[in-house]
Amino acid sequence: MGKKVKYGEFDPTESDGCTVVNKIYKFLTKEEETPFKDCCVIHDRAYWYGGHVSLRKEADIELRRCVSEMGFVLTAWVMYFAVRIFSGPSILFVFSNPLPWSWERKVTILPK
Q1: Which of 5, 33, 46, 99 shows the greatest Cβ crowding within 10 Å of its Cβ?
Q2: Within 13 Å and on the Cβ side, how many CA atoms surround 65?
Q3: Does the residue 96 lie in any domain?
Q4: Is residue 62 part of a domain?
Q5: What averages of pLDDT result for each successive group of 10 residues across the chain (112 residues)?
Q6: Does residue 21 form part of some domain?
Q7: Whole-structure pTM value
């Protein structure tokens, strides 16, 4: 499953880089990583730390902005709507490893 990290620490090597989008991109382009993987890792980090629902929305908006700035505007909007619909407490599917916290977790101050 990967190396263990202490509770409260995010390990970027555990991120799969935008689960479904990454798999589709690899299939279509035969490239190993999406050019916007760093955007996805930042988004995964925000989700990993959790917090109030408003922080989730901020993370989703930041993902859209980051991917758009790399020149993938349509992809960014598709990703934004996908994470808004298919992630969170009402999730219908689980595409990757579960997050290590419950949705009721209190706001955590992110380390620099």
Answers
A1: 46
A2: 8
A3: no
A4: yes
A5: 52 73 86 88 82 82 96 94 76 43 48 54
A6: yes
A7: 0.69
